[in-house]
Amino acid sequence: MVIVKKIENEKELADCLYIRRMSFIVEKNIPESIEVDSLDTFPSSIAHFLLLDDDKPISTFRASEVNSETIKLQRICTLKEHRGMGFGKISMEYAASYFKAKGYKRLYLHSQEDSVGFYEKCGFKVISDMFLEADIPHYEMDKAL
Q1: For the domain that residue 94 is a member of, what is the CATH number?
Q2: What is the pLDDT of residue 45?
Q3: Which backbone phi and psi does 75 adopt, to 5 degrees?
Q4: I want to staple 13 with a disulfide (CB 3.0 to 4.6 A). Which of 42, 54, 133, 144 is the partner?
Q5: Long-range contacts of 50-53 (CB under 8 A, 24+ apart)
């Protein structure tokens, strides 16, 4: 059974950080000093989410409030061996539903260039020119809730 949940303890945060380490630091060679920051603690002012498939952590994202109407999604990733199976879409649908229920009107994120098509399928639209983040081409994207 697949579930997405807001993390509730340090062990779940460690699961999120492991997924991010494998996806960003190992696969994309993003320096740990860029990938892990002061918001990666428990508890934190930022919300971390974990997708579990039969209790196995396989995907994660974190979210922060920009203002009373907008949430920024960050560090969205799925373990390589679980990509292409719809887990990212489940996470994005969950984020939209979760934050809409809390009264937010907009989600936005910075998409790596090679993920723009995925986010477009999830209802996001490109709203910026290309820019570099961690030396990787990105686009700002948003979605109305």
Answers
A1: 3.40.630.30
A2: 87
A3: 50, 45
A4: 42
A5: 50/4, 50/5, 50/7, 50/12, 50/15, 50/16, 51/2, 51/3, 51/4, 51/78, 51/87, 51/90, 51/91, 51/94, 52/2, 52/3, 52/4, 52/5, 53/1, 53/2, 53/82, 53/87
Please tell me the total count of domains within the chain: 1
24 residue type, one letter: F
What tokens does 106 get? 């907009």
Give, in degrees to the nearest 5, the angle at Cα 7 between 137 and 70: 50
Q: Cβ atoms within 10 A of the Cβ of 38, count? A: 8
**123 burial type by CB count under 10 A (0-12 exposed, 13-18 middle, 19+ buried):** middle
CB 66 within 8 A of CB 108: yes
What is the extent of the structural domain holding 76? 2-144
Confidence of residue 78 (pLDDT cuts 50, 70, 90): very high
> H helices then E strands: how many in the chain?
4, 8
- Cα atoms in the 13 Å half-sphere on the side-chain side of 19: 27
Q: Is the pLDDT of residue 105 over 90?
A: yes
